[in-house]
Structures are given as structure tokens and as C-alpha cells.
Amino acid sequence: MENMVVQGFDWSAFSAYLGLGLLLLMGLSGSAIGLSIAGSAVTGCREDKRASALAVSLLPGTQGLYAFAVGFLCLQKLTGEDPQKWFLTVLACGLATGGSCLFSGWFQGAVCAAGIKSINQGRIPMGQALLLAVIVEFYAILGFAFAALMLFNK
């Protein structure tokens, strides 16, 4: 694919780096939002339930790790041989992984907070709260896996 250069501005390269920026913005923000929601729920826990609640509250942090890993892989493609052939793929990876990590991290934080409340009230054990949160995380994993397939399938 030939680059779209208009008066010295390379729109293809711009789209790739825009995708990389959106990937990190959305993925890291999803983790931060989810961690703040879940972490806030821990503050109201009884002392004997706090360790279990804290373990559950850390789950939304993984979305930021997925975004960082995909960003690292994308950056390798953009700095390797023939980076032009990766521009649109990097944009797609950024949008797919960033979006899935933003929303799954955010909503996983809400599920974790509800689980923490239930742990604190003695209604469910930590394992069940973790299971509910992992179901939401699965969609961030799908975004991560799809990006990996796009990056290693060319």
C-alpha cells in the first residue's frame, strides 16, 4: 500500500501513531477507572475481609498490561523492516485492544466493587467474586488475542 502523502504530511503514518496513542490512552484509562472503582470499595471493608477484597480489587489492572503489551508489539512493527505495511494494522490493533480494555476495565471495576461489597457482607466468598470479574476480563483478552493475530498473521 502506497503512503498517502499530502503536501509533506504522511496520513498513513499519522493513522498508525494515532492508533498507538489511542491504544495506550484507552487501555491504561480503563485500568485506572476500574482500579479506582474497585479500590474505593475496599476502603469500606471490615478488617477481617480486607485481604480478600484487596485481591479482587486488583483485577482491572490487567487491561493496562494488555494495552502496553500490544503497544510494544505495534511499536516493534513500526520500527522494524517495512513499517509502511503495518500502518493500518496498528490503527486497527489500537482501536480493537484499546476499546476492549477501556470498557472491560471500567465495567470490571464495577463488578469487582459489587463483589467486594458482597464479600464484606459475607454473601459470597472471594473465589466467586473473582469468577464474576474474570468473565468481564475475557473481553479484554479477546481484544488482546485479536491484535496478536493481526500482528503475527502478515
Structure notes:
The chain is mainly alpha-helical and 154 residues long. The protein has one domain (11-152): lithium bound rotor ring of v- atpase (Four Helix Bundle (Hemerythrin (Met), subunit A)), CATH 1.20.120.610. It is 77% helix and 3% strand. It contains five helices and two strands. The protein has helices at 11-42, 50-57, 62-79, 87-120, 126-152; strands spanning 5-6, 9-10. A two-stranded antiparallel sheet has the order 1-2. The model has no long low-confidence stretch (mean pLDDT 94).
- The protein's oligomeric status is single chain
Number of domains: 1
**Strand/helix succession:** EEHHHHH
Question: Count of DSSP helices?
Answer: 5
Please report the total strand number as a whole number: 2
Label the structural class: mainly alpha
Terminal CA distance reads 14 Å
Question: Which residues sit in consecutive blocks of at least 5 with pLDDT less than 50?
Answer: none
For the largest sheet, list the strands in their spatial order.
Answer: 1-2
Could you say what the CATH topology is called?
Four Helix Bundle (Hemerythrin (Met), subunit A)
The fourth-level CATH homologous superfamily is lithium bound rotor ring of v- atpase
Mean pLDDT reading: 94
